[in-house]
Amino acid sequence: MSRFQVVSGKGGTGKTTVAAALALALATEGRRTLLVEVEGRQGIAQLFESEALPYEERRIAVAPGGGEVHALAIDAERALLDYLQMFYKLGSAGRALKKLGAIDFATTIAPGVRDVLLTGKACEAVRRKDKQGRFVYDHVIMDAPPTGRITRFLNVNDEVAGLARIGPIHNQAQAVMRVLKSPETAVHLVTLLEEMPVQETADGVAELRAAELPVGRVVVNMVRPHLLDEDALRTASGGRRREIAKALTRSGVTGSAALVRPLVEQAAEHAQRVGLEREQRAVLAGLGLPTVELPLMGEGVSLSALYDLAAEFRKQGVGDDTVDAAGQGSAGGAPRSGPGPGRGSGRGVGA
After folding, report:
1. Which of 42, 94, 252, 269 is the most buried (most CB within 10 A)?
2. Is there a single domain that holds both residue 148 and residue 249?
3. In angstroms, rounded to a whole number, what is the distance separating the alpha carbons of residues 44 and 33?
4. How many distinct helices (H) and strands (E) make up the chain?
5. Domain of residue 229, residue span
6. Are 201 and 286 in contact (CB under 8 A)?
7. Using an 8 Å Cβ cutoff, are 134 and 127 in contact?
8. What residues contact residue 160 under an 8 Å CB cut-off, 6+ apart?
9. Does residue 120 contact residue 83 with C-beta atoms inside 8 Å?
């Protein structure tokens, strides 16, 4: 199972919700996951009904079986200060640069620097080990930028490594790319069964493959149920109003003539939607990727709904110890056990 899971998708497809549910799904049975946010929207905090995330790793949920979900909102300025301290030991000089505005300039003006810092911080969490040599997190899940920007976002370290031929910047960029282009990483794309997001997903898959970045699953989000069987769909799509009126009359429904028009119109709209969804499923099937489908949550995405979506992931094989949905062997750390903080089961939210 890939240890670094990147979740992208066209705006409006629910990629942050999917990333959060995936983190919960992978944290079951005593595992620890880190959910990383890079766009500064505090979407994770809202989903888990917690306070705004600081620039530190904080436990935000307990998964069924006692696993833990931690979260981190990466701040590019703070990440740059960490970088300067790590490689150049600037200490107070780095803080002085921040006061002078140099850090803000570097993270907003210098091409690619912000993305290098964000991906670098996430990859550091993927590689980090404790004193016993075990990975601190079994999985790191990134709520990444939208599909149209994801390839450039992940591949920027390759460009930086080419520009800086030697030195710590070159070495850091190469280390990040070794993680991003390895079996440890999988980039999942979230879509809806609609033409525009499906087309953007197909384009995104092509770009990721061209950049030799590992593509994981397609997650079809907000899937609505089919309310009619095949015979009813054919009847509705054919506009057979007279047959429907006779059936209503035979069933003893009074005033059937007044009911026919709105019922037929609604049934025809449903049949048309089902037909369009089938067309989009065919496009997605042509990508040759494993697919997960998550249902539309009718009352919005509450904390309880996140756990329901995580359960859907598990039902469809996501988080299997031996083989993931893409057919890759597990690379995760051993499940943790013991009494530590928040080890109980249930849907509690950690402090």
Report:
1. 94
2. no
3. 14
4. 13, 8
5. 225-288
6. no
7. no
8. 112, 116, 169, 170, 173
9. yes
